[in-house]
Amino acid sequence: MRQMPGPAAPSLPSTALPGTELPAPRATSAELARLVHGAPPHVLDAVARHPNTPVTLLGELAVTFPEAVLDNPALPLLRLAQAGHIRAWSGLAVARLAAVDAAPEWVQDLAMRHPDRQARWAVAGRARLSQPRLEQLAGWGEWQLRAAVAQHPDLSADLIQRFSTDTEYGVRLALSARPDLPPDVLRRLRTDPHPLIRRRLQMHALPMTGTGR
What we know:
Number of strands: 0
Organism: Deinococcus aerolatus
Number of helices: 15
Largest sheet: none
Number of domains: 2
Helix content: 40-55%
Pfam family, one: LRV
Protein name: Leucine rich repeat variant
Shape: elongated
Strand content: under 5%
């Protein structure tokens, strides 16, 4: 008598849900591009760090994972080999990269040349900037950008002097809020043509001179 086949053994559950697997070290660019669809954040972070990730996809991932993109070991080579594609990254992506404390100078250069103003604003908002970068920002045509730079903690004495005579009163107003203004700049701003600046400077006490009489 033939034995009837029994019920099929249940399949073992997968060790990882679809879309949660990290990319293989040798994953191709096409595989990486497919992997990101619906992937959770930890997978997207891994793709942003993968040396085979296409440069266009890196630009998209930079919006949410800027630190991971900057850590990508292929980025220095892509910067040279596919510079045009990197220059085409969105202003938001470049702004997010430029705002990272560890972002190299070339990323700041990329942001300063980007047509989207938010990329330049990201550079101006950095906690630490070199003096040449501050000089570059100080010469920018957007007065709002100069006003932001006027409040930067690393501003040199020369730039403080320059901003104190800026043609746009909004820049001088921003400068007047600094607690470290030298006496000569304070005196100049106390007689500024704009009343808002003079009013703000009323909160600054003039330094004592002479015998104190």
